[in-house]
Write a structure and sequence with these properties.
By secondary structure, the chain is an alpha/beta fold. Helix content is 34%, strand content 28%. This is Stage 0 sporulation protein A homolog.
Length: 244
């Protein structure tokens, strides 16, 4: 089920986009949660607790008089969640080429001046694309975990390791090209996929991406230079996982 976020500071536009999304979901019986609407970029970013291809963002570009604020927010979303789908809903279609500089890979620019039928078609297309992307990622070998406060889905072969966060009730996921934090526990992660291995009370690793074990220091090393500790009790089990 996909999550839909709307960032729009004008009440009339908020209502318009929300109503159209709800209408599309009802008419086509799509698997989507009720859209969440925000007028404040900070408030929206603070409420993102999940990551993955099931996240869809409809962003205005001009927020409270700042012409490119939506682009800045898109860049922040993309840095946190590379698999999210981003759509701009704006009167500033002239900013379309600028998104290449921001490297946000927006799916679409929907002009607010479009008539209702065309506007609805473009919104519907974005939702259906996101749903298809989720199905595609599930078909590809992916790791997924859902807790009471978060849902994360990433390609399994990108995972290096998980570690407990300094923030209570949070876990940090390290992949080959990103770092993301979500609500959950190391115990939740350990149970989520049998291919992972709990090598320490604070770490769960993907054995497939360990390139070397420092036997003297009891440390697992990864291709990007990152590493994590291995407890004495878990050391032999990890070697067996690695067929050492």
């Amino acid at each position: 089920m996909i999550n839909i976020f709307i960032l729009e500071d004008e009440i009339l536009q908020q209502s318009r986009i929300d109503n159209i999304i709800r209408e599309v979901i009802d008419q086509k019986d799509l698997k989507c949660k009720t859209p969440e609407i925000f007028s404040s970029p900070k408030q929206m970013l603070d409420n993102i607790s999940e990551f993955g291809s099931h996240q869809l963002f409809f962003l205005d570009i001009e927020i409270k008089g700042e012409e490119q604020k939506g682009l800045d927010i898109a860049k922040e979303i993309r840095s946190r969640d590379p698999n999210a789908t981003i759509v701009f809903v704006t009167t500033h279609t002239e900013f379309m080429p600028v998104t290449f500089k921001y490297k946000v890979a927006a799916l679409d620019f929907i002009d607010k001046a479009l008539d209702e039928e065309l506007f609805k078609e473009r919104v519907c297309s974005a939702i259906e694309y996101t749903i298809c992307k989720v199905g595609s990622n599930i078909a590809q070998d992916s790791f997924a975990i859902e807790t009471s406060m978060a849902r994360v889905q990433v390609p399994f072969n990108n995972i290096l390791y998980f570690e407990t966060s300094p923030m209570i009730h949070k876990v940090i996921l390290h992949t080959k090209d990103e770092r993301m934090e979500f609500y959950g526990s190391i115990a939740d992660v350990e149970k989520a996929d049998s291919r992972l291995y709990r090598c320490h009370r604070s770490f769960v690793v993907n054995p497939d991406n360990i390139i070397k074990i420092d036997k003297e220091s009891k440390i697992a090393l990864f291709e990007n230079g990152e590493s994590c500790l291995i407890s004495r009790m878990k050391y032999r089990g990890l070697l067996e996982k690695l067929n050492y």
